[in-house]
Amino acid sequence: MRWYANVREVGGGNEATVVLAHGYGSNQGLWDKLLPALSQRNRVILFDWDFTGGGGGEQLLDQGRYTFGRFADDLIALLDDKGVRGAVLVGHSMSAMAGCIASVRRPDLFSHLVLLCASPRYINSAEDGYVGGFETAGIDAMLDAMSSDFVSWVKGFVPNAVGDPVSVPPVEESFLAMHPAVALELARMIFLGDQREALAAVAAPCTIVQVERDIAAPPSVAEYMMHRLTTGAAAAADMVIIDSVGHFPQLVAPQQLLTVLEGVLRCHGGGGDGEEEEVAEVEADGGIDITA
Questions:
Q1: Is 81 a catalytic residue?
Q2: Where is the AB hydrolase-1 domain (predicted)?
Q3: Per-residue pLDDT reduced to its tens digit, 164-197
Q4: 8 A C-beta contact, residue 179 and residue 51
């Protein structure tokens, strides 16, 4: 059984192939604000990670299914099925780390990784000075709340994660579409896991995109990822901090995110001359701070 479903292509441009991979609790509809612009010149591939528990029965309790490696392998299978090589992957949240692992296993598939609101580890680690944003007790309490009343947990968690009341309804709807058992096991995989070592092996150029006020993945995580990537095998990496709120900039700050993605595509997507652009800093309301 594959995790991906509802694969579709938008646009007929030939400048780049852009793969949009959503995060935990989401679906491909959360990219809709970006599609008109991205699809003008590029081939855009979207899909849904199937969190609905379509397999049913004992498969829901098969904890071997819930690994970042499995998601990475399914992403590879999807790109092979679509005949993709050298794609620009925009991996949101959990899909960013799955994309990192996939790029190590199959470097021919990716020309650039955009790691959007990513975190390799959510739990703080005092012994090595890592600040992920959460203590173990807080994650355990969250998992207990999910287990006891999933709907109530969603209605409390989503508004805080989104940060913008107008954008809450589509995210809440997609979260509630998850099978509670699948949602819980995936949450254990994501929030209790540690994918930090995977960063050092990533050779594809990366752009880390974080939101200034994201309760799930604070800027300190982006700084850590930048360090691990640039001291590991990465050919190049830069970091962008969007001045906005929440874990879903594709909904809350779509124009700012689109500006970042268009810059990446000019440099790495096959539509430009391939030269590195100068690092820039844009200061304005809702501006973007780009640092290398």
A1: no
A2: 18-256
A3: 999 999 999 999 999 999 999 999 999 999 999 9
A4: yes
